Amino acid sequence: MKTRSALAAATASVALLAPLSGCGGGDDDASSANKSANCTNTIKNKQAPVVTMWAWYPNMQKVVDNFNTQHDDVQVCWTNAGAGGDEYDKFQTAVAAGKGAPDVVMLEADRIPTFQAQDALVDLKDLGYEDVKANFSDGAWKDVSVGDGVYGAPVDGGPMGMIYRKDVFDKYKITPPKTWDEYEAAAQKVKDAGGPLFGDFAANQPAYVTALLYQNGAEPFTYSSSDGGEIGIDLDSDEVKKVLDYWAGLTQKGLVGTQDQFTPEYISGVIGGKYATYLSAAWAPGYLQGAGVGEGADAKVWATAPMPQWDPSNPVQVNWGGSAFSVTEQAKDKDLAAKVAFGVYADAESLKDGWANQIIFPLNVDALNDPEFINLKVPFFDGQQSNKEVYIPAANGYQGMTYTPIGQYYYTAFTKQIAKINDGSATGSEAADALQQDVEGYAKDQGFTVK
């Protein structure tokens, strides 16, 4: 197996980001005053030790101010080093250089194993995890764990539901389908009547398709960093093939579209009534509204329902997206950094600001059990209590996924196979077989033992 340093070298960015090193935890000479000078926020207690943090939540300024106001023993120095990939590139550079990383870094859950495999993250099991364990579900903790270790403090997630247009459902006398068979039947009914596409199977969103695989009982990966580099890959199982063949059938029958999502073309179609449903996560209303959906002619036409199931007597809840705060190995005071990771964005005021402004769907049980959050009448859904009816049950029932250090390659490979399904050059089963071969070969090339 390749050493961890080899894995780091294989994924490192070549750019050196010296200007960021002043706010990193890896600078042994950095004082609290030096760090404070590089903060986006204002340090309230300049005598307290400082923990540096990279994060891109839109309300991070308020969240950090809340934390710093409430703590005399530690202060957070926050920098927005970019969202998603931009931040990851900078963090990867700091990991490869051995300096320049912050003490705490915001990571999406599926990115955690990649950095953990490079010894870039700290296991939080003995750094306050037990004190906050009950604040999150087992599924939330599984998403930020690698083997027996915990490498992130959960913040937000993406429990999934089926967003739909009430006007389309009313026109064609359809009720929200409870099963995937009912989903297909409804799609056929709408098509036969000359109506819009019932949904969209986007090649550029392999993460949500992966969630659909889990819903049918698939276990695409098994992985633990303590297993000597072993990765279990099961992408051609009957459970996977059933899901992909199902969607291949919908696309070939013209019941759903194949437009890439998060594009102007897709949003134009959503606004124009091209799609009757949108399978997405609890964060979708904020995204859609930000893109101009729900205004004018398509205002007050949206509602949401639980995801259709393969077996409604044994429903499986799934998730798309979610982020956490991880402590980096470059943090000089890991106990203090862990206190920040677990404590920031955990107070009632910050959580409420996050969910009230549709910035996050909180995973903290204090928020999930807050009557105001439970009973919220969501304007985008014309006053529907979507948290109570759909998203909180989905979050509470979610059992978690297993992520691996090769996750980003898997997503790229899966995108290619979904595109083949959509253009008719591969059946779902054929795509699953090809995906298995591709990802397994890559894992072996990277030095992993595939089981």
From TrEMBL:
One Pfam match: SBP_bac_1
Organism, as annotated: Nocardioides agri
Keywords, comma-separated and alphabetical: Signal
Protein name (Swiss-Prot/TrEMBL): Extracellular solute-binding protein
Tagged with keyword Disulfide bond: no
Keyword Signal: yes
Domain of life: Bacteria
Signal peptide from the UniProt entry: 1-17
PANTHER family documented for this protein: ARABINOSE-BINDING PROTEIN-RELATED, DIACETYLCHITOBIOSE BINDING PROTEIN DASA
